[in-house]
Structures are given as structure tokens and as C-alpha cells.
Amino acid sequence: MIASATIQDLQAKTGHAVTATGTLLPIPDLIRMASHAYHYLALFDGVNGQALWLGRTKRIATADQRIMLHNKERGCTRPGCDAPGYLTEVHHVDEWAEGGLTNIDKLTLACRADHRLLDQGWKTRKLANGDTEWIPPPQLPLAAGTNTYHHPERLLGG
Question: Rounded CA gap, 41 and 44, in Å?
Fold first, then answer.
């Protein structure tokens, strides 16, 4: 299981973690379940949410990188897509075939259907805050944007 939680909630043993499918899991249940598991620790910058650096020179993302992406993105990053992380593929924002690296800050998640859009003129780029922006082809009357579906907490503000 992949779950995201804050260090403050873990220390206080209150609040909720969010699983890769978007399910809220009470922190006491997460702690109980984790006591019998092998762990991966994913760390993010507390100021801007930037993911821990996990670089790689091979094309295929590692299991660790996939865990980081599940925790950061939670699902497909194309605006409006509700596909959970388990139904996505890893996408190189800087295309591998054009010299892009398999570094965590240059990877994102896209469901199979949206991943195919990238062969039809769509582009992606990472914003300064680490979010993935999808840019439609010039002939489509759509604005570039990011997906907030998997991050409702961003819509609530402080």
C-alpha cells in the first residue's frame, strides 16, 4: 500500500493519510498497519513540496520513483482526469528519446489514454512548484493547466 501523511500527523497520531487510490486512512490505522510492513520513506520540501531527488540514467522509472510519484501526483496529471495512480504510466516530461533523464523532478503520471495524447501534439512541463502542466496543441482552443482532482486540499486554501 502507498500512503501519504504529514510528519505532524504521525507524531500527534491523529488526522488522516491519503492512499494512492485517494482513500482517507486514519493515522492510528496507518501506524498499526505499518508496524508489520517494509517501509519506503518519501520526503518532500516543506516549503514548496518539491520531491526528494531520485535520479536515474536508465529509461524505466525505479520502484522508489514510482512510489514518490504516487505520493506526489496521486493520479493522472492531465487536467480533469480522475484516473488514480494505480491506473497510470510514468511519463518523461523531457522525452527520453530526445535526451530526457529519468529523474524524479522530470517524471509525472498519465493514464494510458492521456499518455497517448502526447503523441498527438500535447506537451507537458513541470512548474516551479513541481506540478505538471499540460499544454494542448495550438489548433485546440484549450488553455494549458494542471489537475487538482487528486488534490482537493489545494482548493480549500490555508
Answer: 10
